[in-house]
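Backbone-to-sequence.
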């Protein structure tokens, strides 16, 4: 089944973002700062998040970005490449990540790891070049155009030099730690793809993202427990001509309506973790703004659902239910005030942004 949708703009109000610690830029170190924080320099304030890998399926980068979205100026720091050693993973930046951040009006700092430590036959505790990151923050501070323009400029003008720095750093790390890393040929090939032009880079990255999408469709993640085996590809096009190759956990089709479902599951907790929920909410931000949905060439209306399930819960509710139904559910499950506050805020976010939350047990 071929599902295609388009995004023209993002309209979304987050409610679950946490309060961020504020740090003066002169005291800021990307390697020791919280994963999401507020940076102030004179009277200017930036909300900053960082990724530990360019691969978006690792360590909840979407949650970190989500926590910054309510602030006017948002920056995220992403390594262009992360090599964990020849027997470990090596992940590369892809165009779709940068394009997605552009849609969310997030400035991307493309960074590189400068140092690392040995851990058995791999490297760990990789650290960014902090001076480089601070310089980029100051550049953004003086940049008077959109995140889209910044991000495209970084790809076209600066990415090649950043990759060269990453290459030199990993050569140095390999010499210092004695850990064998992946062949430098891979980095050179990646650099060649970038050097051609942004268009070719987009095609190269889309092919990689497409391969990852196909693998994900046939592999359920350990944290997922789906009520139906209907995991499906969805291709999202934006006004840049970029394509995102996502997967949806579940789908339901009734007449001319398709329901796109993102699912989060917990076996041991009463509800899925906030990190899982926020990861799902970034998907809601994307899916709720889709227009012109087509399934195998036929147009469909859409409904978007965040499905949260737990083996600890009894019965089910949705964000569309009445207060009395919701309160009965709270009482039946003896939910704590903390969990009630999370669910109430989540339901408020869903109702404001035109999607549905389903919450309940798996039976």
């Amino acid at each position: 089944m071929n599902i295609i949708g388009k995004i023209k703009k993002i309209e979304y109000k987050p409610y679950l973002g946490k309060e961020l610690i504020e740090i003066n830029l002169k005291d800021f170190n990307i390697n020791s700062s919280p994963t999401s924080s507020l940076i102030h320099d004179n009277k200017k304030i930036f909300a900053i998040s960082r990724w530990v890998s360019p691969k978006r399926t690792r360590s909840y980068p979407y949650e970190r970005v989500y926590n910054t979205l309510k602030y006017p100026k948002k920056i995220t720091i992403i390594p262009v490449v992360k090599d964990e050693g020849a027997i470990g993973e090596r992940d590369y930046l892809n165009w779709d990540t940068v394009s997605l951040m552009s849609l969310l009006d997030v400035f991307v700092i493309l960074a590189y790891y400068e140092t690392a430590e040995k851990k058995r036959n791999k490297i760990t505790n990789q650290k960014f070049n902090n001076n480089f990151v601070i310089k980029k923050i100051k550049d953004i501070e003086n940049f008077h155009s959109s995140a889209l323009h910044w991000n495209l400029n970084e790809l076209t003008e600066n990415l090649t030099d950043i990759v060269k720095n990453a290459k030199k750093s990993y050569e140095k790390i390999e010499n210092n730690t004695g850990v064998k890393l992946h062949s430098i040929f891979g980095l050179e090939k990646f650099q060649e793809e970038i050097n051609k032009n942004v268009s070719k880079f987009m095609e190269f990255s889309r092919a990689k993202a497409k391969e990852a999408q196909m693998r994900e469709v046939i592999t359920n993640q350990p944290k997922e427990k789906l009520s139906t085996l209907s995991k499906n590809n969805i291709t999202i096009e934006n006004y840049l001509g970029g394509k995102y190759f996502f997967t949806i956990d579940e789908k339901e089709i009734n007449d001319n309506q398709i329901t796109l479902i993102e699912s989060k599951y917990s076996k041991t907790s009463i509800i899925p973790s906030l990190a899982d929920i926020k990861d799902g909410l970034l998907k809601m931000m994307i899916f709720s703004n889709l227009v012109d949905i087509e399934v195998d060439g036929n147009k469909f209306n859409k409904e978007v659902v965040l499905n949260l399930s737990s083996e600890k819960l009894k019965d089910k509710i949705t964000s569309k239910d009445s207060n009395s139904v919701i309160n009965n559910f709270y009482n039946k499950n003896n939910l704590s005030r903390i969990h009630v506050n999370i669910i109430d805020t989540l339901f408020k976010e869903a109702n404001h942004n035109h999607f549905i939350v389903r919450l309940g047990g798996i039976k």
